[in-house]
Amino acid sequence: VSLVFISHFVVKIIGEMCNECLYLLLLLIKNGLVTNEDRQFKADVLVQDGKVVDIFPEGSNYKLPSNDIPVVDATDKLVIPGGIDPHTHLQLPFMGTVAVDDFDIGTQASISGGTTFIIDFVIPAKGQSLLEAYHQWRKWADEKVNHDYSLHVAVTWWSEQVAKEMEILVKDYGVNSFKVFMAYKNSFMVTDEEMYHIFQKCKELGVLAQVHAENGDLVHEGQKKMLKMGITGPEGHEMARPEECEAEATLRAITIANRVNTPVYIVHVMSKSAAHVIVNARKEGKRVFGEPIAAGLGVDGSHMFNCDWRHAAAFVMGPPLRPDPTTKDVLMDLLASGDLHCVGTDNCTFCEGQKAMGKDDFTKIPNGVNGIEDRMAIVWDKGVNSGKLTACDFVRVTSSTAAKIFNVYPRKGRIEIGADADIVLWDPKATKTISAKTHHQAVDFNIFEGMKVTGLAQTTIVAGKVVWNNDKLSTVKGSGKFVPRPPFGMVFDGIDTRDKVRNELLRKVERAPYQPPKN
Ligand code: URP
Ligand code: ZN
Ligand code: ZN
């Protein structure tokens, strides 16, 4: 029988600390099925001081420094990397109000659902300093987050100052992704020319360009048309901006990024049409990534036609959920095939009173839905329980790929020695019925209301501490840390070679100067 001794981390610490401190720092996760994106194996996982310090595969005969180390039993559970939600808007000031799930409640909700890392969006107003907005978001988040987080920054206008501030954010503040909006005319929307310049700057800095892809001019015209026809309710929202508005903008964003030769990430892919644009572009070798969201995988846009205004308005978000009921299955199939990449939520929640700002005009309904708490369960239930995804695929689309794309891998998104001890014990058999009455979010509606899901986070470990176990939260407000993300992650691999090869194809013809015809 082989004898595996625990790593030097533990041995070193024993000499220096009393037993009491030791117990606080150490945790053993026993008898679980460790599940990474590429393989599953039975093992015990030892955590110390917020990191995974050892993994003992089944059959290892290992010795621990003490018999008193706290043990979490993971029998019949999957031991997976904590979920990563790459798209949230906690306490976002938006459309004349502020999203109700703040960084405290929002990250309690994420933990209860098995998510331990989010990337939220700094959204400066047009003309506002990006740095000033970034510091504002850091202040909001740092005081409240219950787990680690990071920030994307939106570029809502373009100038020399914006270019300089992008550089500072990348070099000094750990931002490696910038989002542009092709929609929200007269507020966040940028032009194609601005996008071209923003993408060029992204490429120079080695950071990922992200796009909200909808044709903002067509959305604007569509909204006017609906209102003129007297369609003022939530059902007007999707009809004003049908799938082709999303598909056209998706193609345009990919084309502009390809002209610049920089990778591009399409946030909240909501339609089959837009998804197929991405699939085709990838077949043509373009460097594009697509993000479906929990809402788009779990429900459809038929709810906006519900006769109860409150119900219908709760489903209003942009780009809209599509009435086509086959959309969610197609998006899941594309996650399975690898044509779409990671699952976000776009969690941006407004209560009934806030949604009612648009009671007579759907264009004034604050856009956004929930998802941060239910994302993992929705993906497991609709993906794994349908046989579309394997357990490894589940990990790939809920954490590993996001960690890779946004360059925090393998610190996040993988169970391995040295990784952060953000770990979930996933119970594939546990069931619940989703409801606003029992969810942990501040919002008073849940778009998945009444849905029975099988597969839940039984235990969530954040930075080595159990903070969710058997339906009980013990989170610590403000304990999460901002995680800086360096530029030139793997999405940039080979981009310079592509430039070289492409530039070799550009050629100048040497010829005699033009001579006008004589006489
Ligand atoms: O409806 C949405 N998506 N609200 C949040 C802002 C955005 O466009 O992502
Ligand atoms: Zn968006
Ligand atoms: Zn969003």
TrEMBL record:
GO terms for cellular component: cytosol; membrane. Its EC number is 3.5.2.2. Residues 78-467 form the Amidohydrolase-related domain. The modification N6-carboxylysine is found at residue 179. It comes from the Eukaryota. GO terms for biological process: phospholipid biosynthetic process; pyrimidine nucleobase catabolic process. Its cofactor is Zn(2+). Homotetramer. Belongs to the CDP-alcohol phosphatidyltransferase class-I family. This is dihydropyrimidinase. It comes from Heterostelium pallidum (strain ATCC 26659 / Pp 5 / PN500) (Cellular slime mold). The gene is pyd2. The chain holds residues 337 to 855 of 855 of the full protein.
